[in-house]
Amino acid sequence: MSEKLLIGRTIDTGSWVHRIDPRAKMVAMMLYVVIIILSNTWLEMACVAGFSFAIIALTRIHIKYFIRAAKPLWVLMLFIFIVQCIKVDDKNGAILLSIGSWNLYVEGFKLGLFSVLRMVFLVSFTAILTFTTTPGRLNQGLEGVLKPLKAIRVSPDRFTLMVSIALRFIPSILEEAQIILKAQASRGADVRELPWKEKGKMLVSLLVPVTVGAFRRAEDLVHSMESRGFRMGEPRTKYHRLVWRSRDTIFIGFFIVMLIAMVWMSGYGTGELWTL
Amino acid sequence: MFQRELIGPHYTSNAFEESVRNPSVNSSKCSPAIELVGVSYGYAKKDLPVINDITFSIPQGQWVALVGANGCGKSTLVKLMNALLPKGEGTIKVKGLELQSDTIGEIRKTIGMVFQNPDNQFIGATVEDDIVFGLEGQCLSIEVMEERVKSYAAKLGIADLLDKHPSELSGGQKQRVAIASILSMEPEVVIFDEASSMLDEKTRNDLLNILSDMHKSGRYTIISITHDAQEIAASERVLVLQEGKLIADRTPTELFQDEKILEMSHVIAPFAFQLTTELHKYGLDISIPNCEKELTEALWPLHLRK
């Protein structure tokens, strides 16, 4: 189970991108989302692709990991593609395929393809954030990015503590689930051999012990935290401090330049031939 | 002494002999570290109390083993000392400070607790993060925190594991991390709540050595909840609980000689002790040994006497 789980896993290659401040990476990813949304033509998409591959190359992480990160979403992508194909009903447009009274228009096909491409880029590229940043640093970055929320009395510390505990215990709870599954299998109830309906029932019987186990862990954890003097809202010093360096500004700079280029291109509608 | 003994790879060796050579340890047993007067506690009002009118005091620097059958209230009792459970009846004083809602913070600084499950008390994502969790709460400066992480990691032999995730560690290593996390906060009282029960024999011995070294340093008052005969034998004093009541307060030697109490507390005397008791029945006059080695030393001259 955990072998296939790529989300949240760090792949350490010691690259330049790995050393970037997590706050810079988070802001950069937000800018990337805007860039992706702004790319409406094939030329723009090609530029985004070039840019994305360049940054991915900088991480020195093999491209297969990025492809694998987008893989679990194939059903959703297929769905979006089909909906786009069906939705477009352009009476004057060129027809790509006719099945009975239903026509697949070139326009719809292109739109569908474009949406899927956008999604692939978005999911694969933003995986950079988790691939190149350890959960701990990611959490520190999150606290930094959420700081403005203090103005509306939302405590980022509370939120990041929650995230860090979740990150710490998800693998333990998954492991416990595996053990319970194996225990059930050893008593003759192997979930892999059951039909789907039975599998569902089995998973319910898995849910109860796992939930109970999680509560037990939570109680132990609270005792451990409290006995180490932890009290919510009390002042604490920070052991890890993030330091903003010039490389972080440069990293964000790449994305800003790309964003400006995108705005400029969509503003001028460069290359009529390239548009959809 | 703790510092000197724990640094370096051989910190676990000859702990026993060291104490024989240097009997003047823990000389500062003046004011009690922990004082309980008439403490009772029940989880629900209708239920029978889990802790029933317990009174005792523990001088500073003493190593106390708290024993009893499962469910007799040992864990509840130590959790009450650290205010992990709401206050019951009676008074609890830690270093002369009475446990009340406004003194909880101060008392938790004095008492450190190591729990049974090494996995569930690991708060940080890495060993280093786990050690600094308590230090951050004490609002220490980065320099002090760095210094403490370094020195306590070295003392517990986990200096090369600082950037490891808990899933990469063994049970014994995790328990060392838990101890380092607690000791780095420099508490005066350290409570081990069945800290060795999930460990294998070798790691358990390692833990026992750590406890012995801590004790010899004279810096810590130790309360260890345990079922392990060796650990009980190494302590100075044993408190026996049964159904929430304190039924015995004696030295380990006295406890091991009292079969009735042994049975009530579900404790099995160490092998050397059992053998000596059997030999006494055959009229052999051997003094009660502290360890198997001592028993061997006492036995072999008998062969010459023949």
From TrEMBL, chain A:
GO CC terms, sorted: plasma membrane
Membrane topology: Multi-pass membrane protein
Spans through the membrane: 29-58, 65-83, 111-131, 250-269
Listed Pfam families: CbiQ
Localization of this protein: Membrane
Primary location class: membrane
Keywords: Membrane, Transmembrane, Transmembrane helix
Keyword Transmembrane helix: yes
CDD domains (UniProt xref): EcfT (cd16914)
Full protein name: Cobalt transporter
Species for this entry: Paenibacillus antarcticus
